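It is worth pausing here to work through a concrete case rather than discussing structure prediction in the abstract. The textbook approach is simple: state the sequence, then state the predicted structure, then interpret. We follow exactly that order.
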Amino acid sequence: MAFLSKVCFIIIIILAQLALAQLSDFESTNFNKADSIAALYPKHSLSNLRELALKLSEPLPTEQEKFRAIYKWVCENIRGDYNLFQKTKYKRAKLRDHPEKLKQWNKKANELLFDHLINAHKTVCTGYAYLIKRLANYAGLRCEMIDGYARTIDANVGGEGILNHTWNVVQINGKWYLCDATWSSGSFGSFGQFFKAFEPCYFLMDPKLFVRNHYPLDTKWLLLKNGPILEAYLNGPLAYKSALKNKILPVTPDEFIISATPGVKIPFQFKVESVQNQKQLVRLYLYKEGQLISANFPEVSRVNYNIYFDYSFILTGSYDLHVLVNNEYQYTYHVEVNRTITASQ
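Step two, the predicted structure:
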């Protein structure tokens, strides 16, 4: 009996470790063949999704390669639709306090959205997630669409949160993984033009990185044992794609809004999982009222997998502090600098 208990305990530990593992599971997987197969079918018709799914998946031996071919094909062949994006954004904001009306509008809008996707190969996040799910299901993979809160420079930074995004979870070899084909496919320019550029970092991303700019309506899809609450997510520092790609996570401060006093140093600490990125140059940009007022290189200390530096403000006021590594934006903080008020005042 003791032997069986010990075996069960070991199995539980192994399963717990496996449940938390993500893309690191596939470090030895070469996705070149999957990517090559995806490239064989440019602009393939979406009138028969089962046929497309089998073309992409059947030549490949593993579930991760099958899903990669599907994911890569969607990201390379479906374009973001800016006008549809703006219309959807407006409607969701307008109906946010009327859940029943929002539900009815979503149902009607999705029917039109899927027709547009099939005919024009253009869509928004819901269309990307829908197509990933359907193709993965036809390939024999469990895959679900996840609705939630995405954070960008102009969305879900503080406040109560607005449901504004959809992504996927997929089960591979018995475990669930997170991915976002919308953000892997490209981005919109300042005039609404879509720039296609495949970004692999959102393919099977580690949950503790993914949660920096994605928060599911159903928190079980955080895929974290001790994930943040929605309020903490909405009020954390604003994370950019490069921070997640470089696996850089804030330790302190871990809030978007920081209160400071002139002349008093604010300590910053970031956990950097890659030794290579630990050694990159750290730079700080300070903005006030949208204008760059200073750019400097702080004195950085590196201990184990952490980097440390201090920053202090001379004058009172409201500032935006951007942390860059290797000339790429990683995180943004908003700093309110006020003089301390003594008891006599």
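Step three, interpretation. The chain has two domains: 23-235, 248-337. The mean pLDDT is 88.
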